[in-house]
Amino acid sequence: MTSTLYFLLVVVVCVVVFAKMALVIIPQSETKIIERLGRYHATLKPGINIIVPFIDKAKNIVVLKHGRYVYSSTIDLREQVYDFPKQNVITKDNVQTEINALLYFQIVDPFKATYEINNLPNAIEKLTQTTLRNIIGELELDETLTSRDTINTKLRAVLDDATDKWGVKVNRVELQDITPPDSVLTAMEKQMQAERNKRAQILTSEGQKAAEILASEGERTAMVNRAEAVKQQEILKAEGEAQARIRKAEAEAKAIELITEAVGKSTNPANYLLAQKYIQMMQELAEGDKTKTVYLPYEATNLLGSIGGIKELFKEDK
Prior knowledge:
- The protein is of the alpha+beta class.
- The chain is built from eight helices and 13 strands.
């Protein structure tokens, strides 16, 4: 009875152990490669899978964990990131530069990732380093510093094409740091400072030029305005003088008309006006306190005759 119980207990334990070994639970986004007697048998899917213990065995592959290469039977199908250490590359103009790269990739075919390459992480790292050296070697230092997007695109395209046979999809490549030597950095800082000083001088000279242009334009506008003001003043003055002469002529015409009406048509009004001017002039000469000598031309006798006629005319009026 006791032997039977021991036997049954051993059978139950063997069944439990066998069942535990036969049932394989795969988490989501993971898989395992199963070999049967050393030959590829199946790729396990997430969930519960049944294998034959001692005959079926999970294939171990190299993975990168905590910066070290280790063997594991579990294959992670999620996107992974590799932070490669800094490496020295030489640009086209023979400048040695340190570059640190990040690589984002995903295993899309576990069978190829297991059987087409021995050490997948190491192969991707070495391929990234050699490809990066080739791309940087075609660029000068200035182009390297300003063309990160171009370098990332070229590097991703080359790596994606090369790793396709390994069942890997390269999604992104990012250059973290590009560090030239200290001597080059010092020279670049001096060059940058010189360029900034140059731009400052250019901006200062352009500002002075613009200020001088504005000042000259302001002076020209002021001169034009002054000339225009003088012009308008002369025009208004000329128009005023013209209006004054017109009014004076109209007044004289009106006076002649009134004189004609007063003295009658038989007497020339011009003689009357001339006589008035003569009398006024003689009065002004007589008022002076100095002796004056007046010379009259020969034609003045006609004027005196006119004055005599006007005198007779005044007597008649009286």
